[in-house]
Amino acid sequence: MSDSCPSVYVVDDDVSVRESVECLIRSAGLGVETFASPQEFLNRCRSKPPSCLVLDVKLPGLNGLDVQQVLAKTGLYIPIIFVTGHGDIPTSVRAIKSGAAEFFTKPLDAEALLVAIRQAIEHHSGLPNGQKKRSSNGSNQLIGSSPAFKAVLKQVAMVAPTDSTVLILGETGTGKELVARAIHARSHRFSRPMVTVNCAAIQPSLIASELFGHERGSFTGALHQRLGRFELAEGGTIFLDEIGDLPSDTQIALLRVLQEREFERVGGNQSIRIDVRVIAATNRDLNAAVAAADFRSDLFYRLNVFPIHLPPLRERSPDIPLLIEHFLRAHASKVGGRIRSMDEKTLEMLRTYSWPGNIRELQNVIERWAILSDSEEISIDESLFPREEPRTVAAYGEQAPDGTIDLRAHIEAVERNLIGRAMTEVGGNQSEAARRLGLSRGSLLERLKKYRPRTA
């Protein structure tokens, strides 16, 4: 396993789970080691702690919560993602309240698990030597000194100490989740969990169960009672990303939560009271969605208690050098050391580029440069930016000069162009691009592989 690659340890006594999770993590380019028993893990952890731990709850000897307590006593902070196949609701609550990063039930959602692992590693990378407890800094750092961003920082400082509902508005890639995490970290709830839900990434038929949980037998496949994200966020914060994509029936249930601070699990009849702060975010124009009857006006007013508008990167050009420096530090190991300088032509090009994918696109450009470059001087050219394919086929049924129409080439060119635009707009987020294009993530990956030689 490469020392420069973030390491993930997996502890599970089920060999099939270990192998599947190991394969998933390796496919993401991350280092991974697996262990069948907690003692094997603890022996290894003493000499080389990981950046993230995927830990089964039910284990021989020490269980997952026991392992969590052992790590806490040593003063070693490792983000823990618990998994269980037993539907153990009280254990889930204890794990989350004890500081677990996430909790998943088997069978595992591979994409959601990988997102949780990446977030845990990102948070861990902001801690010195991996041994610092959660604090209000770390990965929640907001970078920028432009007037537009200073206004955002001022709003964050004002609203964070309160329990008010916050609605974060902005284009894709502007850092809405980072702002949400900063608000949580600066609130009195910072020691409690912050639970993130991407409303656009969950099937509409499953979103209510994901948010509010369900009772055993409430629908086909509901073999156990399940806690929803609101219950797991008890005492802390729930971040509802892409709230504009919430189905209409779930909007009604969320409205009740905001008004009454209570809900019922799917298939249940018992009201459950909660103490959870709600932060929502969207890249949609909710006023337009309300006017089009796609979003409930009463829910919008409940969410819009304290709106924060994040400016796009093109309106924050003074912040671009600061962001570049931040991302270069994160990828410095890939170029073998410290970056010494940036030529003026490159800096001017980065300042004047429109950045349709915003900060996420800038981060991707810097990462690509760090991987491809063998120099310590930053010199980025136009080849690292996405560009439209040259028009090589007749458009929209036009005949070529020889009177023929290459229908297949035409369709491929249009498809390639649309995929390229979608990937640029979402800063390379494959799941979001697939959603916008109406494709499954697997179908999108097949097309990206097909067109890569022509779009590289």
List the helices and strands and how they pair.
Blueprint: E1 7-11, H1 15-27, E2 31-35, H2 38-47, E3 52-56, H3 64-74, E4 80-84, H4 89-97, E5 102-105, H5 110-125, H6 147-159, E6 166-169, H7 176-185, E7 194-198, H8 207-212, H9 229-232, E8 237-241, H10 248-260, E9 262-263, E10 272-273, E11 277-282, H11 286-291, H12 297-303, E12 306-309, H13 320-330, E13 341-342, H14 344-352, H15 358-372, E14 377-378, H16 407-425, H17 430-437, H18 441-455
Parallel strand pairs: 1-2, 1-3, 3-4, 4-5, 6-11, 6-12, 7-8, 8-11, 13-14
Antiparallel strand pairs: 9-10
Helix pairs in contact: 10-12, 13-15, 16-17, 17-18
Q: Could you describe the 3D structure shown?
A:
There is one protein chain. With 456 residues, the chain is of the alpha/beta class. It folds into four domains: 124 residues, 3-Layer(aba) Sandwich (Rossmann fold); 174 residues, Rossmann fold; 70 residues, Helicase, Ruva Protein, domain 3; 49 residues, Arc Repressor Mutant, subunit A (Orthogonal Bundle). The chain is built from 18 helices and 14 strands. Strands 2-1-3-4-5 form a five-stranded parallel beta sheet, sandwiched between helices. Strands 7-8-11-6-12 form a five-stranded parallel beta sheet.
